[in-house]
Specification:
globular; 110 residues; mainly alpha
């Protein structure tokens, strides 16, 4: 299966390890969007990591909106490793949503 080539995958042990600082740093460096993918809610190998990730993303979406950045640039989705076709669909949808939003307002112009 092929996901969009302009998607950069950063693997972590658990979506709960994706810190708000990491997401904000990535966006501040000019990334057009961030997609956080974790285990289905209630099925976390680390018990509550995905629940923490869900809370963090919800809080960050509010912070982005408050800062004047479209919260649609941040998305969270819940998938298992056996759902490759769903991952490709979610990634493609996200890329299309980000493309519709245009380049990040934080991107440094050369």
């Amino acid at each position: 299966m092929q996901y969009p080539p302009n998607l950069r995958v950063v693997r972590v042990m658990c979506s709960g390890m994706v810190s708000p600082d990491l997401i904000l740093r990535v966006l501040s460096k000019g990334a057009d969007g961030v997609l956080v993918v974790g285990c289905h809610l209630g099925e976390c190998h680390y018990l509550e990591g995905n629940l923490m990730a869900a809370k963090r993303v919800a809080m960050l979406k509010k912070l982005l909106a408050f800062s004047g950045i479209d919260p649609g640039r941040l998305r969270v989705d819940w998938l298992s490793s056996a759902e490759a076709p769903t991952f490709v669909r979610v990634a493609t949808e996200f890329i299309e949503e980000i493309r519709a939003l245009g380049p990040s307002p934080l991107r440094v112009k050369a």
